[in-house]
Every structure is written in structure tokens, then in C-alpha cells.
Amino acid sequence: MSKLVYLVPLFPLLGFLVNGLGRKLLSKPMIAIVGSGSILASFVLSVLIFFDVKANGASVITLFNFIDADSFRIPFAFQIDQLSSLFLLIITGIGFLIHLYSAAYMHEEEEQHFGRYFAYLNLFVFSMLLLVLGANYVIMFIGWEGVGLCSYLLIGFWFKNNQYNYAARKAFVMNRIGDLGFLLAVFWLLYKLGTATFTDVFAGAAGLSSFEITAITMLLFVGAMGKSAQIPLYTWLPDAMAGPTPVSALIHAATMVTAGIYMIARSNILYTLAPVTQTLVAVVGLVTAIFAATIALKQNDIKKVLAYSTVSQLGYMFLGLGAGAYTGAVFHVMTHAFFKALLFLGAGSVIHAMHHEQDIRKMGGLKKYMPITHITFLLACLAIAGIPPFSGFFSKDEILTAAFAKHPLYYFVGVGGALMTAFYMFRLYTLTFLGRFRGSQEQPVKESPWLMTVPLIVLAILSVVGGWMGIPGVFAENAHSLEKFLAPVFAESAKLAATHHLPASQEFMMMGASTVAIILVILFAVNRYQKYQATTTTAAGITKLFENKWYVDELYDAVIVHPLQALAGFLKNIIEKSGIDALVNGVGKMVSYGSRQIRLLQSGQVGNYILVMVLAMVVFMLIWFNDAAITQFLNKIF
Amino acid sequence: MPIQYYIYLSLALFSIGIIGVLTRRNAIIVFMCIELMLNAVNLLLVAFSKMHYGMALAADPATTAGIDGQLFVFFIMVVAAAEVSVGLAIIVMMFRNTHSVDINFLNRLKN
Hints:
The structure holds 2 protein chains of 2 kinds.
Chain A: H1 7-21, H2 28-56, E1 59-69, E2 72-80, H3 82-105, H4 111-133, H5 137-155, H6 162-193, H7 198-204, H8 210-227, H9 236-239, H10 245-254, H11 258-266, H12 268-273, H13 275-297, H14 302-322, H15 326-353, H16 371-385, H17 391-406, H18 408-433, H19 450-465, H20 481-496, H21 504-530, H22 541-547, H23 552-599, H24 606-624, H25 628-637
Helix pairs in contact in A: 1-2, 1-4, 2-3, 2-4, 3-4, 3-10, 3-15, 3-19, 4-5, 5-6, 6-8, 8-11, 8-13, 10-15, 11-14, 11-15, 13-14, 13-18, 14-15, 14-17, 14-18, 15-16, 15-17, 15-19, 15-20, 16-18, 16-19, 17-18, 18-21
Chain B: H1 3-23, H2 27-59, H3 67-98
């Protein structure tokens, strides 16, 4: 079965080619069928591979040599193990639902843009599959770059709006900064170990000095920061909301942002060997989680709230990775994929129904118009807030427990972030679905078509039950089936790292306390925003800081963008004009001036020419015949 | 006769030729001066040829030393004859077109 793994990325690639090349020929239903069908085929294969891996364990399939130069060899190989097969399921499964949803969401687009959209979407999934399947860092990097490119294409999908183009460019540049770190790390590994293949790198990692391994993991983490939107490279993700909503779902849930988590989870041995980097990862994750949560508290754009919530949740995943809870981080990736895809698709459904209104202050009371969207959205909110027994509770709890074992401070700050998560999610929910309708639409708001609600329902079920495969050990022995499944991938790290086990009573107490606190926060949020009236008073103090996203964009503008533009202007106006241009034009001017002067030598008088010729010959003769024997002879005769 | 005399004579002839070429404007005189230079060289070649032959003869009665100098002279004379025919033809054509044999009229190709 695993032999057929190359088909998994091949189907989306074919879908991309068919839709991309035939976008002007195919009809819209045809495009949607090709686009979704290719992902469905990959999903079916992924399921088969998943069970194959479960039964027969991991394997590496080498297709051909990607680079083959003397002893240096990069094979184009696919790594099929527990981790990658799980990611395959997430990517293709959720990717398929998003494709299905897109068919309805994007139906207003013209045919060729519709085709372009599905082509990009397929390419996106293809790149992500390549990233996850690659058996070495180089193949992973191909996918890594591919998702960056596709995010650029899709964020700027509506390219007639310049604002969207800027957002796309920002995403691309931010990602490139991270990619540089990743690339340097890969070069370093190649230089030191001569190979980028995961198994060889992990086997040879113990031989690296502690400085090298710390530096390499830091550089890899810089790559993860860019891709997974961590401080300081997170600002592109909220701006990525410029793209169509299903794209946001795809970026936030199934692809792209999980790449950083996947890469670190894949390189878990390197990180376990570098405790300094681990601490950095945990701190950056924690700070991002809190920081993004505070911004999400005061955002009024339905998608912006979700975007900052993604940044925040990614922070938790990095906290988990930094605390050594690799399983927990992957678990949270999975549950987050379920409920974040659901939230985005739900938001898309709302935006679709509200005729592209995204301001939650102008919504409200949608509960009775959009029952399916409302119920599924509520389930997703409960899941992300961490109410048992919804999926988010288990994964977040696992990360926070591991963080507590590392350092209690991590735990308390993390719980603070979780409370904020509950608050802003239910603020969003209440403002959107409860209270009275504050919009000004003449047309009635109605439920979205079945093509959009079916993915919502499927994802809602997953959001509810998705956590049950990772029930913590305190409830039942051996109930954490995900941990057992992933154990071979993290086995080496588990051996190296000392495991802390909290007493069961303490763990129960922590869970209970945080759950009660979260429920109280939810009740407070619902109560507070139920009777919401749009006010015009401007915020002050810390609220203003939250509303303006801590002025980070402005800070980056002032510190990086403006000086860079000033430098570019200086180079363009001064260096280019009076330096390079002067040099190039100077050569031309000198040649034409010189030739004008030399022209005067050609007088047209034949006598002059002959005189010059004779003189020249005399000079040459004097030079050439300046020979001892001849001089002697001449001296003799004269 | 010492070789110096031949050298002086041909040097004088050659210099007259050069000066004539440089100073005169009449194409026919320029032409004659060129011939003069060629013949100055011929004279020198013959003189050296004879000198080398005479020196080698004392050692070896059957020597052919210096014979190539004489050969060159014949070649130069042949080439000069061909050159004269072409050159005179050019001068005739020039006279037909400009009614003059002044070489300074030949700068018409300018501009």
C-alpha cells in the first residue's frame, strides 16, 4: 500500500494542472469536481496508508535521486510513518471539506477565476503534502516554499484590490524571512552531516556539539516562526484574511501554519538535544499565545478575531513543543484543525449570508436565521474554549499539564491565555448569533446551501469527538490512543527527556479549576455582549492598545519598512543616478569624445598618411632591428 | 669594390624615393619615386648576394650561397612590372575623372 504513496501528492498536482490549464474551457461544476475529487482521491489513499502504517509501521519510499553529485545525494523520498500519515489525514480530509465548501462559496466568481481558485487550492494541498511526506529537509523545503507561494497567490486572489496585494506581499516577505533561517539550518546540517535525510540526521545529531545543535534548532525555529506566525513574524497571518474565507480555513487549519509545528515535531530529537532552544520555543509560544489573545479581545472583524485566535493557539502548540509534549502539540494541531476549520467555514457562511459584511458589530441575532451554522459554530467555540468533553479541552489540557511539569509559571500564564480565548470566542459568538439583529440588509439573511453546511456538520462532529482519542491517563489507563500511535516517532526524545508525572489528584484539581474558570468567563462574556449596543466612544488606555494590535504593524513600519524604503530611495536617487548611471554613461561619453578628437588625425591629405606611415615604419625598424649583431654591422659600415 | 659603396648608393636612392613620395603631388612622379625605392632595394640585394657568393667561393668552388638574393630581385622586378601596369591604369582613370594627376584631389572619398 505504501508503495502507492506518490499518488497522494500526485492527485492534487494533476488537479492543479487540469484546473489551471483548462480554467477557460471547463465549466464551473466540472472545475469543482476535478478540484474536490483529486483531494478526495488523496484522502482515500491517505486513509489506506494510515491503516497500513498502523499495521506495518513506518517506511521510507525512495522514488529517484533529486540531487546526485559524487558522494552528495539527496533522494526524492517519502517518509511514511505515524506522524506523516496523521498529517496526511488532516490535510486531505479537511482540505477536501474546504474544497467542497469552496464550490458553493465561490460560485459568484467568473469561470476562469473559479478555475484559478481551485488550481491554487490544489497546488496548496500538493505543496503541503510534499512538505509532510518528504523524507529529508530538502524535499520538505520544496513543500515549505510551495505553501508560501500558494498562500501569496491565494491571499492576493482578488488581485484588483491593492490592499489585498499588499497583504499577499507581506505574507510572502514574512515567510521569506523565516525561510532563510530554515535554509541556513539545512545548509548547516548538510555541511556537518553530509545528509539531510531525517533518519541519518537524527542518528548523527548526538555527534554535533551543543553550540551547533542549538544554533541549527534556532535557525529551524526561525523558519517555523515565519510559517507558523509566531512573534515576531506573526503579522502576516491576520492580514492574510484578505483572501477568500475558505482559503483562510485552509491556511489556518489544514496547511501552512501547521508546517512549523510539523517540522519541529519531526525534528523532535534535535530539539530535545537543545534545551536552550526548547526554552526559547516555549517562551516564544507562550508570549505569542498571550499577546495574540489580548489583540483578539478587541477586534471587530469576524475573521480578524479568528486569525488572532489562530496565532494564539499556535502559540500553545509551540509551548507544547518547547515543553517536550510533542504528542500534545500534534494533538492540538489536529483538534485545532477541526475546530478552526469549522470556525472559519462558519464565519464564511455568516459572511456569505450577510452579503460580505464582516463587522460583528453589524451582526447579531443570526441564531434564528442560520440554525445549522449557529449550532456548529457554538460547538467549535466550546471546543476552542476548552470545555470538556469537546476536543480542545483534551489537547490544551495535555499541553498545559506538560507546561506545568516544565515550570508552573508556564501553566498559569497559559491558563490566563485560555481564559482570554474563552472570552473573545464567546464575545464573537454572542455578537454574531445572539441579541438582536443590528445589520442594515434589506434582503433577508438565510441559511447557506447544503454544500456549505455539510462540511460544517462533519467538522462539528469531529470537533466534538476529535479529542477522545487523546484522553489523559488520569481518566483511564491506556486511553490515550494517539500517544500510543505516535510513540515510535517520539521514542528517541522520550528516552532522552525525563518525564514528569503529576499526581492524579493535582491534575484533576487543575482541570477542574480551569474548567470552572473558563465557564465563568464564558457566562460573563455572553452576559456582557448580549445587550450590545454600537457605541461611538473611542477606546482609551490598554483597550486602545489592544484595538490597535499593540501598534506592532506601525512599529515594524517605523523600524524596518520606512528605513528600508529610505535606503531604497537613497540607492535609487543617489547611488544609481550619480554613481552607476554616471559610470555607464561616462564610458559612452568618453568614447564618443575620444573618437571626435581622433577623427581630426584623418585629414584626407594623402601626403600626411604616407608621412605617418614612413615615420611609423622607421620607428618599428628601430625597435625590431635593435639587435646586437645588426648594430655591430651597421657600426662597421658607417 | 667594398660593399659600403653599394649601401651608400642604395640608401641615397631610397631616401630620394621617400622624399619624393612625401613631397611631390604629381602622381606620376610619386609613382616614379616608388620605383626608385624598389630599385634601391634591388641594388642592395644584388650587392649583398654578390658579396656572400664571393666570400663562400673561396671555401667551396661549387657554392650557391647568395643566389636567393638574386632570385628575390627577379621577383621584385616582376611584381614591379605588374604594379606599374595597374598603377598607370589607375593614374589614367584618375586623369579622366579629375583632369589632373594631383594626388590631393584624391581626398574626395572624404565625407
